[in-house]
Every structure is written in C-alpha cells, then in structure tokens.
Amino acid sequence: MKNLLLLIGLALSGGWTARAQTALLSEDFETGTLGGFTAVNGQQQPAWHAGLAAGNGPRWAGSTAAFVSTSAGTYGPLAGLSGVVHLYQDVTFPATPADFVLRFDYRSQGALDVLLVPTSYQPTAGVRPASPTVMQLSANLQSGGAYTSAWLRLPGALAGTTQRLMFTWSSASAVPAALPAVLDNVLLTAGAPVALAGTYTLDRQQPRGPRNFQSLTDAVYQLNTAGTSAPVMVNIAAGQRFTELVPQLWGTNTHPVVFQKQGAGANPELQSGNIDLVGAHHLTFDGLDIVPGPEAVGREAGYAISGAFDQGSHDIRIRNARITMRQDQPHTKGIYQRNLLLASSGPADSALVNRRIRYENLQIQQSRHGIWVTAGVGNVPDFDVEVARVTIGDGTSGSIGYPAAGAGYEAYGMYFMRVNGLNVHDNLVQNVVSRTNAAVGIYAYDLMGPRPAVFANNRVRDIEFRHPADPAMFASLPALVRGLWLLQAPASRALAAGHPLRVYNNEISELRHSLDPGAAQPTTRDGQTHGVLADLGGMAGSALLFAHNTVTVAAPAWAGFSSTALWMGTKNQQYGTAEVVNNLLLNLTPAISPVTATTVQAVVDVGIPATQATPPLTRVRMDHNDLVLTTAGTQRRLGSYYAGPAAGTQAYAALAAWQTGTGFDPNSLGLDPQFGPGPRLRPTTAALDNAGTPLAAVTTDLEGTTRGAVPDVGAYEFGAGITAATTPRPVLAQPWPVPFADELTVATPGAALGAGQLELLDALGRVVRRQAVPRYSEAVRLTGLHSLPSGAYWLRLSGPAGPQYTRQLVH
Question: Which UniProt keywords apply (predicted)?
C-alpha cells in the first residue's frame, strides 16, 4: 500500500474527545503491563515488555512505557543482538466516515514500522510483515534515540471495518549500539479536534482534561489541527521541566495565543527540544526557558521562526526567557529567524515576509551565536523586527562563539541580514570569541528602508579574537574584531529611497586580540579592531546619525594590526550623509614596533567624499565630540578623511590639524575622560560635563536618565557622579523580604530624599523595574516580580542628591 504522510505531532489527550472526537484506542501502559496489546516475541530475545526502565513518553504524564529489551527491568543498546518483534491490538472503526488519526510517542534507533492488517493475520516473530496483506502506515521510524511524537492520518475507507493495528520493530546485529523501540501514549481517535478558546493550563502534575495539557506537544497539536475560535491563554506551571521534541507550530490562527509562565518560582523549561514556528501568526511565548538535554546532538536553535511556502510568520513575541544551547555543537543559535523566499515583496508589509517580530528580556548563553536573523536573497527583507533588553553571554569569557582550542569559526553576538525596520535597543552583548576571521558584537548586513534602522542604548564588551596555536589555521583571512558592524543595502538591493541609520547611546569596550596557549604572535596575517564600522548605502537618502556613543578600542602591540574607534563610509561617492555629535571616542593602542605601511591607529576614519573641495564639508557634520588618541607616533591619526578621487585620503595626527583641515569638530575636545571604576565607562573629568549640544532625537542616556538642557558627551549623563565620584553613597534601609518573590518593599529616607525613582537592576546592570518615589514617601513596594529570572539583583534609589545603593538582593 502507498505510504501515508508522517507528520511529527502529538497525541490529543482523552479530555479533548468529549464532543467532536471518540477514542477508539487509548493506552499509556501505566499499569506496568502491555494492556490491550498482544506481544509476539517468540522464543527470541529481545522482546516487548512494559515497565519503568525506558522512561515515559512526553505527551502524557506517567512513568512507564512499552519497550523492546532483553528483560523487563533493563533498557539500553542491544550489544549485537538482532530480532523482529511485534505488538498489536484489534480496533473497530465506526461505520460513519470520520477523521481517523493515530498518535503515539516513540523512540528508536532501529526500524519501527506501523501497520494495519486483517484480524486474521497472525504475525510471526523474526519475520517482517509484507504486502499485499499489510497496509503500511509508516515505515522505518527512527528518532535518534530521543523521544518524539508522531501522528498519522488514516484512510476514511476504514469506516465500518475492524483492523489489527501493529507495531513491528526490527534490528540487525550489524548495529550493535542501537537503542531498540519504545512506545507510549497510543491514541486512535475518530472525529475532528475541537478549536481552542479561552484559558488553559500546562501542568504535568495535574490530570489531563478539557482545560489542562500535560505537554507542549499536546498544545501544539491542537493549534496545528484545530486552530482557535477565540483568544487563547496557556498558563505553564512554574518550575516544571518538559523533556520533549515539540513539533513545528504553524499556528495560522487569527486570534492571539499566549503561552506564559504561571505562578512564582523558576521559569518552566523545555529540555531536548525547541520552539519552531513556521508561518505562524499571533503567538507569544513568555517565560519558557530552553535547556539542552543529554543527547550528543541538540537543536540548532532555541527559538526558531521561519516563513512557510506561502506566508511569513508575523506578530510573534518571545520574551522573559533564558536560552541555553550546546556550545560544542556547530552553528547553534539562541534565536534563529529565517526566510528563504525568492519573490520580491516590495517596500511595505507583505504576506510573504516575516514581520512584526519581538524579542524581549532574554538571556542567551553557551551558544555559537546569540541571535541570527536572515531574510532571503535580493530585495526580500523581513519587516519590523525589534530586539530589546536581551543579554547575549552569561558573563563568563567565551560563553558565545568558539572558546575551545582547535575549534574556530566566525562568531556573532547578534547577526541581521536584510531587515526593513530593525530596532535593536537596550541590550548587552558580551563574551563573544572567534578563531577565524571575525568576532563581532552586533552585525547588520543589507539594512533596508524605507523604515529606519535603530541601534540604541546597547552595551557591547568582551569581544575577542583568539589566535590559534596552529599558525596555518585560516592564516590567509584577516582577524577582525568589531563592536558594531553596520552596512546599509546598496541601490541595487534597496527597496526605496531613504533608509536612515540611527546609532546612539551605545557603549563599546574590551575589543581585543589574544593568543591561545602555545600560540605565537601572528606575523603572516593582518588584524583589525573597529569599535563601530558603518557603511552607508548607495541611495540619496542614505543617512547616519551617530550620537552620544562611548567607544574605546585598542589594537595589540603587534605589527600588522590596526584599530579605529569609528569608521564610516559610503558605497556610492555621490550619496550618503552623516551627523556625528556628542560622542566619546578613544583609541588606547600602545606603541607598536615595527610599524608597517598597513598598520594604522585612528580615532575616526571618514570615507564620505565632500561635495566641495574646501570646508565646510556639508555631507558630514562632526562636532561636540571628545576625541582621544592616547599615544602619538607614526601611522597614528586622530582622523582620516577621504575627500574624493581627486584629493584622496587626508590624515591628521592631532585635533587642531583635524579641525583646520576638514572643518569638522570645531567645538570638540581631546580630554582623557578618566573613567571611574567598574565596567561602565563613566568619565570623572569635570571639564567634559555639559560638553555636548542638544539633539531632539536623543532625549535620554543609556540608562534612561533624561538628558540635560546642555547634554553631556558619551553614553551617560554625568549628573552628580562626575563631581562626587569618590563620595561614599549612603545605604538604604534593609528591603524585605530577601530573597524576594513577587513583591519587594523598600524603606526610603522620606523627606530627605525628595521626589525621585526606585529602580531594580539585574546582575548585569539592566533596569528591570522602575517606579516613581513621592517626595515624602517612607516606603515603596515593587510588585509583579515573579516573572523575573532567578538570580542576583541590585536596588538603586535616585533623587536630587544623586543615586543611593543598597546591598545586593536575591530573587
């Protein structure tokens, strides 16, 4: 018989069959026996058994399953044994035609066949059934040894008949390490599934029923097959772990569907599987962590979003989760959004592209890459993508990328290719390591308009290229370390004129080259360190706003290695404008010997030609910056400017020469900011206070503090900190309870404080809660904290007297 299509899915729980479905067969083997099934094992071993040894299938809660083994008390590789064993049960199909669906959980590294045969057919141990008597529903099912779930749609012609449903497992001694078959949670139904509507729970500790799922697989199957008739909320019990390979979720519903953590405690976890959305609509996952399983090979992505053949995914939100991947597996990504459609979509919202996607409050760790968003070839960008308050890296060196000796590839904290309307803000990217040609904090290629691309309030630090001990390993490629690497699309691939690039309130530091143990200083390759590289597109509307950023770079003291705090250029000499104001840019590279012709240390490098030969050069505005080159010497420049084919590149060693030669930076300074202690680059040089110029586009700093009427340069408003950096801060009264759960009460100094605000910061310095404090308040209560990840936090109380800090808290 013709094989029927096998779709990875789930078994619908018995509670859903009350009206539209009838259960023709339901067996979870929880009695510790084979139940209504008959085993045909013959005199051979291995044989079918039931019990605890093989574990429980993921769809329904329990502890036992049917499995093939040499005994009822053990399960594992067969060590060279071979055999063919059968398990069957007779099923009567109702006379009225209906949707017949078979669902089951299984795992197998041998060949597991699913068959229907006449009730007169008696299988023989050691012999695989053969046509024409056999109706083969699916052949040679294998899951790689991990549990997965399947569903098979059966022919309507079975109505009014009785058939023998049979599972046959076979293996050869040539595969000595193969894990034999495990079968669990078998359900055969007649009738259509019921559409979801309203509120449900996902709780393995509660019985399955009309309003409770026991697995993500169950919930996904219901959405895939029946959809929704109203908005849906699925509350996932806090602290529970779901170990299952969840099927792809299509979710083409028109109603919003939200999966969210319920209750206080740790986020629920999905282990060994991932969330894979294909052409899905109106879905939110809020508070579901991803953790790897014990398998040698895990999932490529924690959350994957892609377009289907005829539609993109849209209105998707992934938030409040920790995503932990397998760093020993190539190409892993915490988030993987892709779309390989080849049709042109045009500049507006289109049904073919992924659109309106939000990633919020995530932590991604132990992965080769953090976030990877890539659209198809040509002018087919994804549309309206936002990444907000995401932490890439867990604070330990090399937690993103390729930290192990002998391994290497490009590594990206965030990677974007072809997006129209990309907004990346309030993120921390750290601990990225590469061993080939690039270690990059945030990379964006072919940014497309007409919507602007925004990179704001991000911290990028600890981005490292580790040169391997083997000097031949990718020696022909340049070794690149870049904080922000931003490239607008050229005219040939741009959707419409005008795609501005806005980069403000970013802090970039700790970009470095290092050596693996035993590695020699590189002498046969070039190396580059760029704090920010911005390449404007080839259209008249290509524009860059670069404001209030703090960038420090330092090349190693090795010949052939160069560095630039800010490099900006254009793909077309006739187009592209840039406004560079209120930035703090430093090059801290020590003396290098020998200095080669290609070794250049610079603060800024401008490659946007002038529209006229002498200043003012109107296509570039640079002013009110602090530009610092700490070491003078050969091939060291405060700035370089490419003025066009006729004039070529002009280099200026000091600020005064730069101002005179280009007309740029007439009000800029060259003062050492003398950063204070701690990871934040906060200046303590009082002469830099109020050195900026007002910008309507930037009204707050990296931490959300309102910019002054005359703002400060760099990512932070100095406020009281610049003159009182060494003054001890008073400590608040003890907050309670500690550890806190959903609420936290904090005593305040009352009238002595004045009106201010209370902020809760995570261990990485990100503000996760903020609340105004009235002038005469004596205590402030923060609520709704149960959704925050467990870990260490800090409190910050700010008022007219400046910030005051408590000791560290625990959640």
Answer: Signal
Residues in Cβ contact with 256 at an 8 Å cutoff, skipping those fewer than 6 apart: 231, 232, 282, 283, 284, 315
pLDDT tens for 162-183 read 999 999 998 865 555 678 899 9
Give tens-digit pLDDT for 401-444: 998 876 778 999 999 998 989 999 999 999 999 988 899 999 99
Does the CA dihedral 347-353-357-363 come out positive or negative? negative
Which secondary-structure segment (H or E) carries 224? helix 216-226
Instruction: Using the predicted structure, report yes or no on whether residue 797 has a pLDDT greater than 50.
Output: yes
Q: Can you read off the two tokens belonging to residue 719?
A: 């406020």
Contact 409, 368 (CB under 8 A): yes
* 156 φ/ψ angles, rounded to the nearest 5 degrees: -65, -20
CB 22 within 8 A of CB 191: yes
pLDDT at 524: 67
Closest of 443, 435, 484, 438 to residue 461, by C-alpha: 484
- pLDDT at site 229: 95
What burial class does residue 362 get, using C-beta atoms within 10 Å of its C-beta: 0-12 exposed, 13-18 middle, 19+ buried? buried
Residue 573, Cβ density class (10 Å: 0-12 exposed, 13-18 middle, ≥19 buried): middle
Quick one: residue 135, left, alpha or beta (phi over 0 = left, psi -120 to 50 = alpha)? beta
Euclidean distance between CA atoms 354 and 338, whole angstroms:
8
Q: How far is CA 72 from the centre of its chain?
A: 43
Predicted model pTM: 0.83
* Rounded-to-10 torsion of CA 615, 621, 627, 633: -40
Closest to 92 measured CA to CA, from 191, 3, 16, 190: 190
The two tokens of residue 538 are 């080839």
- The pLDDT of residue 20: 62
- The contacts of residue 157 (CB under 8 Å, 6+ apart) are none
| Distance, C-alpha 571 to centroid of its chain | 30
CA gap 203, 216 in Å, rounded:
10
Tokens at residue 142, please? 């294998």
Nearest to 636 by CA among 609, 603, 677: 603
Strand 100-107 with 148-154, pairing:
antiparallel
**Of 268, 199, 264, 245, which Cα lies nearest the Cα of 8?**
245
Q: Which are the contacts of 773, defined by CB distance < 8 A and separation ≥ 6?
A: 748, 753, 755, 756, 757, 758, 780, 797, 799
Listed residue (505, 474, 580, 491) closest to 537, CA to CA: 491
Bridge partners of 395, per DSSP, are: none
Rounded to whole angstroms, the Cα distance separating 610 from 173 reads: 75
Q: Which residues does residue 201 pair with via DSSP β-bridges, in sequence order?
A: 212, 235
- In this structure, the number of other CB atoms found within 10 A of the CB of residue 293 comes to 18
Kindly state the tokens that stand for 512.
């470095």
CA-CA distances (angstroms) from residue 364 to 248, 292, 413, 679? 21, 12, 9, 20
> Can you tell me whether residue 798 is helix, strand or coil?
strand
545 near 492, Cβ under 8 Å? no
Number of C-beta neighbours around residue 95 at 10 A: 9
Closest CA to 286 of 786, 793, 791, 794: 786
Cα(301)–Cα(274) distance, integer angstroms: 7
Q: Determine how many CB atoms are found less than 10 A away from the CB of residue 734.
A: 11
| Mean pLDDT value of segment 478-507 | 85
**Can you list the domains of the chain with their CATH numbers?**
21-191 (2.60.120.200), 196-662 (no CATH), 734-810 (2.60.40.10)
- Residue 22 has a CB neighbour count (10 Å cut-off) of 13
Alpha-carbon gap, residue 516 to 470, rounded angstroms? 9
Q: Residue 385 and residue 371: Cα distance in Å, rounded?
A: 12
Q: Of 158, 80, 169, nearest to 123 (Cα)?
A: 169
Token representation of residue 483: 């904080």
Closest listed residue to residue 343, CA positions, set 381, 371, 305, 289: 381
